[in-house]
Amino acid sequence: MRKIKAQLFISLDGVVEAPDQWHFPYFDEEMGAAVDATLGRADTLLLGRRTYDSFAGAWPDREAAGGEDAPFARVLGDARKIVVSNRPLDLTWRNSEQLAGDLAAGVAALREEPGTDTPVWISGSVSVVRQLAAAGLLDELNLLLHPIAVRGGMHLFEQDAAPLPLELLSAETFGTGVLNLFYAVAAAPGGATYEDAKTHLPQQ
């Protein structure tokens, strides 16, 4: 079974919208290596329409230009790109296809494909991440937590949604102060109350 993993740039106050407005001052070799270790090794990407449009509007030209980021652009171009949208799309970037039918059913089928060592990666695509987390179809969440409070924009976690317990798998601190955090979606932590917690308080 393939795992479904998501990577997002996120601010200290939980904003994931428009990272191009606040992320790049923190991009360095450590950040580049982290992205290369995930998206740069992916053979399948699951993308929301807006994220796909952004990628398709930039990476093919960067590959053609042959600059420093051309090898990464080529990897993205060669990867299978599955685009989530409720309306018909004209997909011009090579190896692109539209997810047919229900998102949860389509992703459940993706998970059953062979390739346990090659997860399906989601980049950005907040709505897709939210829906898959709610449906129990998101296996891991890679958050690159930036030390900045953006103070406006879409947050990753909705205020009115059910709690989403997470288990920290690994944490790495970059020289810029960015935290590279890997979480697995976990079972509910249980029904402990304050009365239970009091037993762990220091005794006077």
Model description:
There is one protein chain. This protein has seven helices and eight strands; from the N terminus they run βαβαααββαβαβββα. 26% of the residues lie in helices and 23% in strands. The mean pLDDT is 93. The protein has helices spanning 29-36, 49-56, 59-65, 70-78, 103-111, 126-134, 194-197; strands at residues 4-11, 44-48, 80-84, 96-98, 120-123, 140-146, 166-173, 179-185. α3 (59-65) packs across α4 (70-78). β7 (166-173) and β8 (179-185) form a beta hairpin.
Summarize the entry for a quick read.
This protein has 204 residues and is an alpha/beta fold. The chain has helices at 29-36, 49-56, 59-65, 70-78, 103-111, 126-134, 194-197, and strands spanning 4-11, 44-48, 80-84, 96-98, 120-123, 140-146, 166-173, 179-185.
Using brief descriptors, characterize the structure shown.
23% strand, alpha/beta, eight-stranded mixed sheet, 204 residues, globular
Q: What value does the average pLDDT take? A: 93
Order of helices and strands: EHEHHHEEHEHEEEH
N-end to C-end Cα span: 52 Å
Roughly how much helix do the residues carry, as a percent range? Answer: 25-40%
C-alpha geometry: globular
* Sheet with the most strands, sense and barrel status: 8 strands, mixed
Major sheet: arrangement of strands: 4-3-2-5-1-6-8-7
The number of distinct β-strands equals 8
Structural class: alpha/beta
Approximate strand percentage: 15-25%
Any idea what the radius of gyration is?
Answer: 19 Å
Identify low-pLDDT runs: none
Q: Which assembly state applies to the chains in this document? A: single chain
Our count of helices gives: 7
